[in-house]
Amino acid sequence: MKNKLYDIITKGKADAKKAFAVLIDPDKINEQSLTQTIDIAVKSKVDYFFVGGSLVVTDTLDNVVASIKKQCNIPVILFPGSPDQITPKADALLYLSLISGRNAELLIGQHVISAPFVKKSGLEIISVGYMLIDGGTPTTVSYISNSNPIPANKNDIALCTAMAGEMLGQKLIYMDAGSGAQKAIPTEMIAKVSAHIQIPLVVGGGITTPEKAKQNCIAGADIIVVGNAVEKDPALIQAIAEAIHSLN
To answer: What residues make up the domain containing 28?
Structure first.
């Protein structure tokens, strides 16, 4: 199975290079705003586009991915909220297992259902230990997943969960406060988790300023994901990209 993008991600970690992924929710973007976002992302040297959402109630996923691929060379990685959010037009798929929760459907159940289609898609599959962290407000993903997030002050639970995910064979750990989180994940928790795993660490949710993105990278995040903030203000893309890449 091909692993081109994962090799790039792991090499980036080995070289201590921090990366920035812009998250695009197909439900929250139109053609004009997508083109604007792509233009800014290219100029800002964004590393990845993550595409997906907790619901995706429209049928625009294929078109959004196709538009990104047509307009730029930034890799497109699917960040699906359900097995329906898959298109072979992307470059890779984050195959998420919700290791912070106890909902068996999102630990393995949905994967069993989607496995034949996922394998047939030809996408590069990147297995991910996905961890929800309390961001100060209920989020769509916590509601849909029927799962409680890890409390933001429970660093030991977070690091043990991440360690378990790595030992179970996950290729990435993704810590997420969720879209629209009031608070970003504490840097102390990021640092604790980062210090106890060898695989790349992705952090997202509640990151609304370049300073916060940079702090999270210094704490140990390898890839920073921002969606909600840049949906409201696409100009933030350049400032966040510069803050993250200034550490490289």
So the answer is: 4-245
